[in-house]
Specification:
By secondary structure, the chain is α/β, with parallel strands linked by helices. It folds into two domains: 2-61, DNA polymerase, domain 1 (Orthogonal Bundle); 81-243, 2-Layer Sandwich (Nucleotidyltransferase, domain 5), CATH 3.30.420. Helix content is 47%, strand content 11%. The chain contains eleven helices and five strands; from the N terminus they run αααααβββαβαβαααα. It has helices at 14-22, 28-33, 42-60, 67-70, 80-83, 125-131, 143-154, 167-170, 180-186, 200-213, 216-249, and strands spanning 87-94, 103-110, 113-118, 137-140, 164-166. The chain has a five-stranded mixed β-sheet with strand order 3-2-1-4-5, with helices on both faces. β2 (103-110) and β3 form a beta hairpin. α10 packs antiparallel against α11 (216-249). The longest helix is centred in the C-terminal third of the chain and has 34 residues, at 216-249. The termini are close together.
């Protein structure tokens, strides 16, 4: 999707982008090759060519940070397929939801492996930065309003400023409504029985059992629950991306 995306150009919205697609302009290369485009003056075309050429150079170099400001946040999903191998799936747990809540655990799932950092053990800015080193895209569920602001408050500058594919906002666009667990049910995903019925409230309780009573089973269960969240984000991201792509290109030719 990213190489047929024109929303990164000034003055190009989704309506104008769709018109470009309908006129057979389905890639950056096709845009640059055409000398004339309907509704775009020669002077403006030259300026847009320069903008697109610069974007293409950054993309080819793998500088994904450049696109975080060019593309609306709700359209970062368009980069997912090309960045999948360098994507980190992240989820946090906290000791509550109030203004004084703190992060108790962070899991980062990448390339089939999950790193879980726990408060009082190995949760630190340095370790989180290490777990995310080389990441070119982030995937979360409601991370833009919860996970990432919480991390920035407690562990500033630990998360790279890369494109962010927030499934909480992407799912409703393809008819998947509700929280992460509800969406999983809609898609037929089944969690291991051990954590199948653990909720966010119970996750807070599990942390308190560990913190106040040293209950290692509670900590183990909480860690498993947190890890399942990140692993399922990978499956969900792929499904939602496919549906968003189909929805965006419907009727425009491929």
């Amino acid at each position: 999707m990213i190489r047929r995306t024109f929303l990164l150009l000034p003055g190009i919205g989704q309506l104008k982008e769709r018109r470009l697609w309908e006129n057979g302009v389905l890639s950056w290369e096709e845009f640059l090759e055409r000398r004339h485009l309907a509704g775009i003056s020669v002077q403006r075309k030259e300026a847009l060519d320069q903008e697109l050429g610069t974007a293409k150079e950054f993309w080819d170099r793998g500088s994904t940070e450049y696109f975080t400001k060019l593309l609306p946040s709700g359209q970062h999903w368009r980069m997912y397929r090309r960045l999948k191998e360098d994507t980190a799936y992240l989820d946090i747990e906290t000791n509550g939801l109030g203004p004084g809540a703190i992060i108790t655990m962070i899991s980062v799932h990448r390339n089939g492996e999950t790193t879980t950092l726990t408060r009082g053990m190995d949760l630190s800015s340095e370790n989180l930065s290490k777990a995310l080193d080389g990441t070119k895209m982030m995937v979360t569920f409601n991370g833009s309003t919860f996970d990432l602001p919480m991390i920035e408050r407690e562990f500033p500058f630990s998360v790279p400023k890369v494109p962010h594919y927030d499934l909480r906002h992407a799912c409703p666009k393809v008819g998947l409504r509700g929280g992460l667990k509800q969406v999983e049910v809609l898609l037929g995903y089944r969690r291991p029985q051990e954590v199948a019925y653990v909720t966010g409230e119970e996750a807070v309780y599990l942390w308190h059992l560990w913190e106040r009573k040293g209950n290692e089973n509670a900590l183990k269960l909480l860690r498993r629950y947190n890890q399942e969240d990140t692993k399922n984000l990978e499956q969900l991201a792929e499904v939602v991306y496919g549906r968003l792509e189909e929805r965006s290109l419907l009727g425009c030719g491929r």
